[in-house]
Amino acid sequence: MLLHRLNEYAARAEADGELPPPYYRPKRIQWILQLNADGTAAEVVDRRPAKGEKPRETTAPYAYRSGTMPPPYLMVDTAQYVLALPKQAPGKPVTERAVEEGRRRRGAYADLLLAWTDAAPDDPYAAAVRTFVTTGVLHRLEAPKEMTAADNIALVAHDNTWLHQLSSVREAWANSVRSRKSGKNAGGLCLVCGKDGELLSTIPESIKSGAIPSAGRGRDAQLVSINASAQGRGGAMQLVNTPVCERCGGRAMAALNLLLASDTNRRRATDSVTVWWTREPADDLFDTLDTPTDAAVARLLTSLHEHPDPATSERIDPNAYYALTLGLNNARAVVLDWLDIPVGRLRNHLGAWFAHHRVYDGWNHTYRYFPLWRLALAAGRWDAKANKYAPGSAPKGLEQELLHAALTRDPVPARLLPHLLQRIRADRHVDPPRVALLRLALHPNRKDHQVTAPADRLDPAQLDPGYLCGRVFAVLEAIQYAALPDVKATIGDRFFGTAMTAPAAVIKTLRLGANAHLKRLRRDNKAAYTALSRRLAEAFAAFDSHDGIPSLLTTEQQAKFVLGYEQQRAADFAAKAAHKKNKDDQAAHDAAVEAG
Questions:
Q1: 37: pLDDT strictly greater than 60
Q2: Integer distance in angstroms from the first to the last C-alpha of the chain?
């Protein structure tokens, strides 16, 4: 199915002129060999970018090569093949074996050039290339001192024509790869196109080095690699159990590499990469996860409210959406996730993602939505000195798990809630992204559109003991801060971790301590005293339906404690903002009356 979908995308890209020729891939070319008109001389030209300049790339022949005698590429290859420049280990002298191997590779490169001239005798540049090889010009060229064995060199004609871009060269190179990669006398039904033809023994093209993030050494990777009998079904190796014809295999990998190189259809994480595409052109939905603009989120939420049932939204927009997540294991690509759903259903899932994690900002009377990467970061360690989350401290793989939950409407991973609570207790830091994660983790069933999420703002009807304890703690902290605005360490700084796990003793002690603060407020700030006393009474009154303040809270109740605490604070901020606005409006009105 994956190869089939990639071939569909290849057809679209080819129609748009974006798909590279078969067995071509973007390469950085550091040098060119420019032939004169008759091929009797050639000049080595330095094409390396200046310091700070972006390296230039061009599509050039490529096919995955391995083994003890890897074959050459046509027209564009490394200096080891073109000029027999031997590989040299750092700090060690060049060995005779490396010199001999360089000569062998240059000989193979020369033979491939001659094979092209034989296959395309009518090409106007073929005679010059044949002369360049047969008269010894190629073999007499010496590499500049600053050239390395890994530098790419391209052949260019006297009129600045890149020879690897000639149609005859493209055809010759494709035929060369086909003869090398197709199975011996292997024919049968291709599982991708459903047609009989010659089948591949191995996938002819690999995933480009660096396309999949990895902590180790970057190297090309194979999407399908079965080179040991223990890996294959029934002991069969290579593509025996995955019959794919040359055209489908090559086009699928060309499409995948095109997606991996795209800035608009790719999302890179720490150790994985996700690419996405649609069967037919559609608006960019995926990008909203990392750049949730107000307009984009509003459109998704409107769509969610109009069609809350995912099945209904699927019928509204049946266009197909695909997302592939890849990781790396040595030289093999690992398919971590594969998604194939209608665009309408995806729009529903993304709308639910934002609805389920949004956080109310009481001071500004708005909702806040967070990029997926920021949510993942909030599960890491808070560095109070740097006033930010420590890079790389979030649980490994969490960002990919959150991405999967956003795209599929699945629950967030079960490990998130206890881990996040432990972080909050240790860091004594609660902010909107962490509250957003708690809302997601506490949702009882994200797939069922009839099951509601925890409230996104203060919920007076919520009587969960943990939630009530969080509300009470927030009011007690507000009382202390109102009475002692210059206090250096609030009760939140000192007792938050204990209160969210064993609230009874802490809250009762703090309630007694709040009497002195209330007495001071009644003397110095009557309005604050009245408002805070009322909130405190309302918060404690809710415990009447329970057996008092609980001694211990469960994991879920601890999460609801944090939620109640933050939502009470947001409501308090909203009340302060409204009071300030009314006061400012009254002052402006009085000034206008006085002026009039």
A1: yes
A2: 77
